[in-house]
């Protein structure tokens, strides 16, 4: 369980009162997640998720919370942050920034099938369309600059073969990001971490509907095709081998394209962006694995998986037809 900050009922009640909500009837720490402290809170008004931010500072949060509110109000299945009487979305708990959002129903899926990938692809495209009038911008804090800074920190923990792979990929990504084709890619505020554990599905087994997507705390302004690559690398990759599962990838992209048709340039650069996305999570998992922060109980995710996703994306690039 990644509970970095213990929250008492008294502390939760004080915050809920500021948000116009009654006292907590139940407060339950959430075991999954590795970035923030999360609790489910029940009040007479409903079910909520209380997040205490462990890495992000107060002034970084308005971008994420306003993006969630923008998407929720545009009809997207995204939790809406609750404001206080002053209209602020960022609150304080135990001296740290905190937020309260409505709890979505359903469960995340360990093994999404074609039907789930289609729903996620369509929702991703609609979110990309819905940010056209979102006024805030913030760089992706796990973008190329972060990767270039992190690679030398984790490289000493790699064997010679993996170290060589990392060097080769850094050079490739620098070249890709400097290209004219990359510079022309359409951008916007994207989730940038929309893994299968950041979406919930509700309904009867085999007929589940996507009830929502959450955990926008790695969102940033980046290319839409990078966001699509992050999603393909998780929803459509075989977790045992790290290989792309073509039927799922094709189903997801087809559903995405029915809502928002990617340009020829976006499709041409998708293989390189899949490598960028694989490298981003390889690096963050390496950092969490070798340089862990203190926590009550922390389950870092294995970095090797994304090394294999990267190797597969290099060895068997998927070039979808326009
Ligand atoms: N709005 C919500 N509705 C329902 N459940 C939620 C909601 N937000 C979070 N959760 C639950 O809390 C868990 C942890 O949330 P989240 O993934 O945001 O944590 P995190 O520490 O930021 O995680 P990560 O490691 O994925 O970055 C989720 O797996 C989900 O079960
Ligand atoms: N989705 C990430 C964790 C949060 O960034 C991973 O699976 O490594």
UniProtKB/TrEMBL annotation:
In which domain of life is the source organism classified?
Answer: Bacteria
* Assigned EC number: 2.7.1.39
Q: Which UniProt keywords apply?
A: Amino-acid biosynthesis, ATP-binding, Kinase, Nucleotide-binding, Threonine biosynthesis, Transferase
Q: Which GO terms describe its molecular function?
A: kinase activity
**Pathway terms, separated by semicolons:** Amino-acid biosynthesis; L-threonine biosynthesis; L-threonine from L-aspartate: step 4/5
Q: Which reaction does it catalyse?
A: L-homoserine + ATP = O-phospho-L-homoserine + ADP + H(+)
What Pfam families does its record include?
APH
Per the database record, which ranges form the Aminoglycoside phosphotransferase domain? 27-245
The record's annotation in InterPro entries points to: Aminoglycoside_PTrfase, Homoserine_kinase_II, Kinase-like_dom_sf, Pseudomonas-type_ThrB
Under SUPFAM superfamilies, the record lists: Protein kinase-like (PK-like)
Record's keyword annotation contains Amino-acid biosynthesis? yes
Q: Does the keyword Phosphoprotein apply?
A: no
Q: Which residues are in coiled coils?
A: none
First-level EC class:
transferase
> What protein family does this chain belong to?
Belongs to the pseudomonas-type ThrB family.
Q: Protein name, please? A: Homoserine kinase
